Amino acid sequence: MALNYETLKASLVLYGLNAVSAIVLLIVGWYLSTVAQQFVSRMLTAAHRVDPLVSVFLSSLARYAVLAVVGIAVLQLFGIQTASLVAVLGATSLAIGLALQGTLSNLAAGVMLLLFRPFRIGDDVEVAGKAGKVRALSLFMTELVTPDNTQVLLPNGSVWGSAIVNHSTYPGTGEVKVSFPVRAGRSIKQISEQVLEKLRADPGIGAQQVPEVHVSKVVNVSDAVGPVVELTVSAKVNPAEADAVKQRLLDEISSLLSDIVEPATAENTQ
């Protein structure tokens, strides 16, 4: 059988041009998908009423939609009919579904997270054993940023399928409570007044909050010098300031107790 070089040459030229066109189309489509993502993101951000989490998700969806259209156009360049492709995919849907089970579950979980929105951009959350601030939600991944500025990428399926602890949903005031033993008598009133004075001047406590100091229980009544009681100091503070306020309170209490103990010790030695 004689080989028709003219036909072979024409076929090579045709498929070569199609390959070049496909590469160009892929490059242009990739660029257009990025432009579409940025355009949708800017439009939704300019609306001011759209949640940032929704804008990130929809902009990511626009990018993948453009890439899907480009993929279909590339297939048509090589003469592959999309109707036939859909029929083949339908016949092998079970195998494809099993192979992409994890990916499809992440996609479905991303849609559920977008609809129910258990967290928003900037929320402090604990999910799937990880803790951090929500940075973004895409079709397949949820991005967190830890306090030490480390990126954490979680599949949406693991996020939706686990308990979500959101520390930013109810941003009311927290509470600082410290208990310590002290001898009963005038020292209780002295310490209470000084602790309250320091707490009222603490910048981590709101002006509308009223700190309290009270005797929570009697620790020891058999002491010959005087019974020992337990004082409890409590104050409402901003959650972000709770640790700092507690540390300052502990330092102040330690200083007050040492000032009381040292004179008493000096009097006993005289």
Automatic annotation (TrEMBL):
The chain crosses the membrane at residues 12-32, 53-79, 85-116. It is a multi-pass membrane protein. Its main location: membrane. Residues 61-101 form the Mechanosensitive ion channel transmembrane helices 2/3 domain. Homoheptamer. Pfam families: MS_channel_1st (PF21088), MS_channel_1st_1 (PF05552), MS_channel_2nd (PF00924). Belongs to the MscS (TC 1.A.23) family. One of its GO terms (molecular function) is mechanosensitive monoatomic ion channel activity. Residues 103-168 form the Mechanosensitive ion channel MscS domain. It is found in: Cell inner membrane; Cell membrane. Mechanosensitive channel that participates in the regulation of osmotic pressure changes within the cell, opening in response to stretch forces in the membrane lipid bilayer, without the need for other proteins. Contributes to normal resistance to hypoosmotic shock. Forms an ion channel of 1.0 nanosiemens conductance with a slight preference for anions. This is Small-conductance mechanosensitive channel. It comes from Bradyrhizobium macuxiense.
